[in-house]
Amino acid sequence: DGVGASELAYLAGLSAEGQSWYRQVPQQFNGAAPKFEGSVQDFVAQNPGLAEQLRNEAKKCPRCGKSCATILSFCNGCNHDLSDAPVEYTENVCMAFVYGVARGSRFPLGLSLRHEAPDVIVYDDLLARGSCHLNAIPTDCHLPDWR
Fold it and tell me: What is the DSSP code (8-state) at residue 48?
């Protein structure tokens, strides 16, 4: 019937035996409103000591506009050569989640939360490339880049 099918994948479902082993991580809703109702830019203006934590260095692809890691030689969106792409700053939405900022420059910052503890949050990746793509962010420290 084509349900869940695309040119890249087909989701066939689970057998009865598979159902007994399969565990789904439920989404959580904690009912919390953002701690800061403004944008990332507004938050940085009121907390200038956090400016470094709330920005990322990235190369913007001149062909498709995707922000790519500075260590990449080619865009991971369209494979365009990034050797002449300048390094720019982008919003670090992950840290904006940690600080409870309501919105970024282009869209509201909401999460599909899977787990929350005093030292970590786990959520569905906003730009997921697969059917199960999760991010886990420590909330008790700042790790600027761990590649």
Answer: G
- For 63, residues 6+ apart whose C-beta sits below 8 A from its C-beta are 75, 78, 80
Task: Give Dmax (Cα) for the chain.
Answer: 55
CA-wise closest residue to 33 among 82, 112, 100, 80: 100
CB 123 within 8 A of CB 134: yes
Task: Compute the Cα dihedral for 109, 144, 121, 128 and give only its sign.
Answer: positive
Chain segment 39-72, per-residue pLDDT in tens: 999 999 999 999 999 999 999 999 999 989 999 9
Report residue 139 as tokens.
């909330």
Cβ density class 91-101: b for 16+ within 10 Å, e for less: bbbbbbbbbeb
Low-confidence ranges of the chain (pLDDT < 70): 1-12, 25, 128-131, 145-147
